[in-house]
Write a structure and sequence with these properties.
Largest sheet: 8 strands, mixed
Number of helices: 11
Helix content: 25-40%
Order of helices and strands: HEHEEHHHEHEEEHEHEEEHEEEHH
Structural class: alpha/beta
Oligomer: single chain
Strand content: 15-25%
Number of strands: 14
Radius of gyration: 19 Å
Length: about 350
């Protein structure tokens, strides 16, 4: 069957799953380096995240979700293939996900969805990660330098501006699947004027407390612009929000992520807002590889053969399920043309 025939057939099947109505738009909303306890809905006080707290109040919030590995590219590769890094080939930033695995966006596209993505970090560039597969549009235009070296990211206000443009250009005759990723909580942490949840003088704090305050400022800045996107969504849009990994803020004498599997690096926020899903909290253990099947389930699309995760809204927990996490550490800087790939648009 050709893709031209397959897409309408799958879209009809998805419509049937929703009682003949048009399947919902699906927003895969993600944040980089966001530990769960950095949000008010997970206990941060004062809360830096009123918009995400509001989303949480409308969602099923998972209190126990861990990533598969505390690195951006490998973590999202695991989510979108529902295969762990050791199986999907993307064990480091800079390694592409295996072409032999089907990604969730490819299945959305095959089902007739219009698919688009707005990225904000070099680790998810198409040529480095391979995660553009299945997207009709993959916006990875960066201009901001990280560490003053290469054009590696863009801030939350620009991410939301780009997402709103994409949203306005989405065809009206079919549903969309969108992935919008925010990089802001990633180091180096920037203090944003007007975004200071604690109200303390950041510049007079002890160094470690100052680092934590700047991190919270980044979260607050990101939350403001996520709020703009959430307000603009069409009514028939379901939202799954998750982070790629957490961050150690001097716990265990460690700052950062990637090389350790401390809980601060692994535990991430996860919330799902969808019709028929009662708002509340669940202690059900969840993992990154569950994200792909859950996204597909929200649209009534069957998962690909070989996807190993669970649909968290429909599948029961297998008896004796064990969550395995991995770490490999860092990027692959010796890849030929690596710096050029990061710097190029």
């Amino acid at each position: 069957m050709t893709r031209a025939v397959l897409a309408p057939a799958l879209l009809i099947a998805a419509c049937a799953a929703f009682g003949g109505e048009t399947p919902p738009n699906v927003l895969f909303l993600t944040a980089d380096t966001l530990r769960a306890d950095a949000l008010g809905c997970y206990g941060a006080a004062p809360s830096p995240s009123p918009n995400l707290d509001t989303l949480a109040a409308q969602s099923l919030l998972f209190t126990d979700c861990v990533c598969d590995t505390p690195l951006t590219g490998p973590s999202f590769s695991a989510m979108l293939t529902s295969a762990p890094p050791r199986a999907n080939g993307a064990t480091h930033n800079g390694l592409r996900v295996s072409g032999g695995l089907t990604t969730a966006p490819e299945l959305f596209k095959a089902a007739g969805y219009h698919t688009w993505c707005v990225q904000s970090t070099w680790t998810l560039k198409a040529r480095l990660s391979g995660l553009d597969r299945g997207f009709d549009r993959y916006d990875e235009a960066f201009h901001k330098k990280r560490w003053g070296v290469v054009k590696a990211e863009r801030p939350a206000d620009e991410v939301t501006d780009a997402a709103l443009r994409m949203l306005g250009e989405t065809p009206k005759d079919r549903p969309f699947f969108a992935w919008v990723h925010y990089i802001d909580p990633h180091a180096p942490y920037v203090f944003h004027a007007g975004f200071n949840p604690s109200g303390a003088n950041v510049w007079r704090m002890p160094p470690r407390e100052g680092v934590r305050a700047r991190y919270r400022s980044e979260v607050a800045f990101m939350d403001r612009h996520i709020g703009r996107l959430l307000e603009a969504l069409p009514e028939n849009t379901v939202v799954l929000f998750v982070a790629d990994h957490g961050e150690s803020l001097y716990e265990h004498g460690y700052l950062g992520h990637g090389r350790h599997v401390y809980h601060d690096n692994l535990r991430v926020p996860l919330m799902i807002r969808a019709p028929g899903t009662a708002p509340g909290r669940t202690d059900r253990p969840a993992q990154g590889i569950d994200i792909g099947p859950t996204l597909l389930g929200l649209a009534g699309i069957p998962r690909a053969e070989g996807m190993t995760g669970l649909d968290l809204l429909r599948d029961p927990d297998p008896e004796g399920r064990v969550r395995v996490v991995e770490t490999y550490g860092g990027a692959v800087p010796k890849l030929p043309g690596f710096k050029l790939l990061i710097a190029s648009g």
